[in-house]
TrEMBL record:
Residues 204-213 have a biased composition (Low complexity). Its main location: membrane. It is a multi-pass membrane protein. This is Sec-independent protein translocase protein TatC. Signal peptide: none annotated. Residues 167-213 are annotated as: Disordered. The chain crosses the membrane at residues 6-23, 30-50, 80-101, 113-131, 137-159. Keywords: Membrane, Protein transport, Translocation, Transmembrane, Transmembrane helix, Transport. It comes from Streptomyces avermitilis. It holds the Pfam family TatC. It is found in: Membrane. The keyword Protein transport applies.
Length: 213
């Protein structure tokens, strides 16, 4: 897991190099915005885990009985640090996922706001299961920022939905402004026949050519 986290810039660049040629200019703009937001969120979660880690280790050491020395193996320590960094970093990506679903029209801000009780409970349960330690301090340290980020994503979605309704009320989009008229029209205007003889001869010739073919 530590190798995956350390090598993330390389395989993320390779993934982007594979996906980018198939995206339009507007899609690339959204992709740049999400990547530019997702990386700081992940780094913020990792930094928060780094700050909480000493307190978590201190709380775990307090469970050791008096007169007993607690020696933590290096492998277990590295696994604890890596798991906390990855879990905190990925958990901080929740608002980005919610905003993405709102921009694509899958979820509305009103619906996400109606889920706030279930989301608080779900985030709390996730924090209790995802944190490697069993102390409530680490659980609240993970759940608290996710609660704040969740309500921030809900506020952004509500503003975005209001902007969409205002835009729809002002007028339809360019694609919906007028229907396409696919009825074929002749662009050649028929000239009046000044000489009836020529018009009759041309009509007779046309009819004869059609009959022969």
């Amino acid at each position: 897991m530590a190798g995956v986290a350390l090598a993330s810039p390389v395989w993320l660049y390779q993934l982007w190099a594979f996906v980018a040629p198939g995206l339009h200019r507007s899609e690339k703009k959204y992709a740049y915005a999400f990547v530019g937001t997702g990386v700081p969120l992940f780094m913020g979660g990792a930094f928060f885990a780094y700050k909480v880690l000493p307190t978590t280790a201190k709380v775990l050491m307090e469970f050791t009985p008096n007169g007993v020395s607690n020696l933590l193996p290096l492998d277990d320590l590295l696994d604890l640090v890596t798991r906390m960094v990855v879990v905190f970093g990925l958990s901080f990506e929740l608002p980005l996922l919610l905003v993405m679903l709102n921009l694509t029209g899958i979820l509305t801000g009103k619906r996400m706001l109606g889920w706030w009780r279930g989301m608080i409970m779900g985030i709390t349960v996730f924090a209790a299961l995802a944190t490697p330690s069993t102390d409530p301090l680490t659980m609240l340290a993970l759940a608290g920022p996710i609660w704040i980020l969740y309500f921030g994503a809900v506020a952004f979605s509500l503003v975005n939905d209001r902007r969409k309704r205002r835009r729809e009320a002002e007028g339809p989009d360019d694609d919906e402004a007028s229907e396409l008229d696919l009825t074929p029209r002749t662009s050649v205007r028929s000239r009046p026949c000044r000489r009836t003889g020529r018009c009759r001869s041309s009509r007779s010739r046309t009819g004869s050519t059609v009959m022969t073919t």
